[in-house]
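ok so for the tutorial part 2 we go from a plain amino acid sequence to predicted structure tokens. step 1 is just haveing the sequence, like this:
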Amino acid sequence: MATSALVPDALRADVETLWDYHDMHHAVRPADVSIGLGSHDLGVATHAADLYLQGLFPLIVFTEANAPTTISRFPRGEAVHYKEHAVERGIPEGAVLVEPRATNTGENFTYTRDLLAQHGITVTSAVIISCPYQQRRAYATCKKLWPEIEVTCASLPLSLDDYVESIGDVDRVINMLVGDTQRITEYAKKGFAVEQPYPGEVRMAFERLVDAGYTSRLI
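step 2 — the prediction. this is what the tokens look like for a chain of 219 residues:
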């Protein structure tokens, strides 16, 4: 597998195919709330803050506890650190809610819905902000668990190469892309998410990357 910070030429076409597949290519519209999904990527909080400052929504909910791979970076929990980062970028503290318990994408949405209800906040639309490779899975999960709201998806607008550079670990990015591609079909089968298109070129790119050894995020 790759060890440099660049996508290997031999894998680039397949990686780009998965990268494009997970981008929902939504035009972000004004919404009642933004839901920022926790991860290792602080760019989620950056983009949520940027869109808030553009007036796209009046409220942000950051949701996630920790994964084993993020405890050292975000010891107080991913959502808590995301809020701190957003406030540093100029977001009023009162415009950010923290949901600190979720440990998977389904819980992100069910716990966020419950948190908003506890605050007496009714929403009919949301902008989901996530890592680029998580957009499609987040969309499919939200539409399964919270179908009544209108959803658009967004990520910090970076090219594949710029995103890999920002993370600093090409293997991690490729493994995440491969893992999330598998989850699109498997989670729909399990009833965790709505079905999504799965074009042949995506399936073939996924299979070639699995054969190349990118299997650490497979379920």
